[in-house]
Amino acid sequence: MEGYLNNKTFVFSDAKVTILHKKVLLNLRTSFGTSHSSTTIRSNSFIQVIVEDKLGLYGIGEIGLPPKKPYCYLADNEDIKDWLNGYFDHLSGLLDYKEKVQTDFSLDEIPQYIHTMIHAIDTCPLNSKEYSKAARNGLEGALLDLAAKIRKLPLNEFIGLKATKPHSAFYTVGITGDEELMQSLEFGLQYTHYIKIKLNKDIKYAEHVLDVIDRECKKIDGYRAKWSVDLNSDFNEPDLCLKLINEVLVKYADKIYMVEQPFPVKVDNWSIWKSVKEACESKGMLLFADESVSTVESIEPIKNIVSGINIKLEKCGGHRAALKCIQKANELGLKVWIGAMVGSSLLTNMGIALTPASVYSDLDGELLVTKESQPCTKGFTWDVKKGIIRLSEDIGVGVSLINEKL
């Protein structure tokens, strides 16, 4: 079919299943800048699993694909295409697989073809590729959406996370010029007074931006604003980061909940960054890791230099891997934050299923994307201005494709 990067149909004993993969362009309301890139358009991968049986259901998953960055953002649409082609070859030899996949949540009453397809994800030979985690997340997300619909449960309940209290989420203001910064901030404060601020190692830029944001927050939103500061691994040594904390961030310490990922993604000696954690915590701010956390194995080495970790589905490889990261963080006494790449409401709702296990999140990706380029409808809702998000009670991931097929 025209426009598809992948399109393959499999005939199992209990269903006929088609897997579609498409690149979807998402226009951003303003430019979105971090310490390593700035974009106005995102090109994400969407995966749809369509089942031809009496239920006539489909599952969907989205893969957020920021510009590549060594060690953390590793995939683009062509990489997802290549992994899926390898997966298709692998799955073709497993159509008679009869075992049940074991997970931390129940897959009882789920058709065998889903077990087979998840088993094929776990055993795909291309899983050794550095980009595979992002691809696995997209396909697993579509299969879990489908499985939750079969069980007639919201995705969060299907994976064992029942929402018991309101959850607060941050809106992200990227690195940009004053005009777009003000535009973005004014828009975000319509939804939440929790603001995530992208900074880098430029101390003067940080001074200026935080002063502007502080004045505007007071003007627009009174004194309620709570911030987080995201440094996107831009500091090579602790000393400059300590200068930022002790000379700039300290002025706003009463507003800042946490400082995120100042250190490089990979560090030879993590202990040298303990002073940064101590400096943050002494001023009432927490220190979280983001890019340095990919798999459950990556958490233990940084446990003494952070207060918590930011979990993203693309980094760890899907909901099952994310749940293992959450469990490990809990064992180590670390707080959990759920993040998401820039994307549509589908991507955001995939991440929101994990929020009952977190303290906060920045699942604002859909707010960064123009309404006109959204391919999905429905999903979670914002309690406007308060920053509280309410999970969808619809079955599955909670959103539907506007055109039913990618």
Please outline what is shown here:
With 406 residues, the protein is of the alpha/beta class. The chain has eleven helices and 17 strands.
Describe this structure in words.
The chain has 406 residues and is an alpha/beta fold. It folds into 2 domains: 6-152, Enolase-like, N-terminal domain (Enolase-like, domain 1, 2-Layer Sandwich), CATH 3.30.390.10; 167-401, Enolase-like C-terminal domain (TIM Barrel), CATH 3.20.20. The chain is 31% helix and 23% strand. The protein is built from 11 helices and 17 strands. The protein has helices spanning 77-92, 112-123, 132-151, 155-158, 178-188, 203-221, 238-247, 274-282, 313-316, 319-332, 345-352, and strands at 6-11, 16-33, 38-52, 58-63, 167-168, 171-173, 194-198, 226-230, 256-260, 286-289, 308-311, 335-339, 360-362, 376-378, 381-383, 388-390, 399-401. The strands form 4 sheets. An 8-stranded parallel β-sheet has the order 6-7-8-9-10-11-12-13. A 4-stranded antiparallel β-sheet has the order 1-2-3-4, with helices on both faces. A 3-stranded antiparallel β-sheet has the order 5-16-15, with no helix packed on it. A hairpin with a 5-residue loop joins strand 3 (38-52) and strand 4 (58-63). Helix 7 (238-247) packs parallel to helix 8. The protein starts with 5 loop residues before the first strand and ends in a 5-residue tail after the last strand.
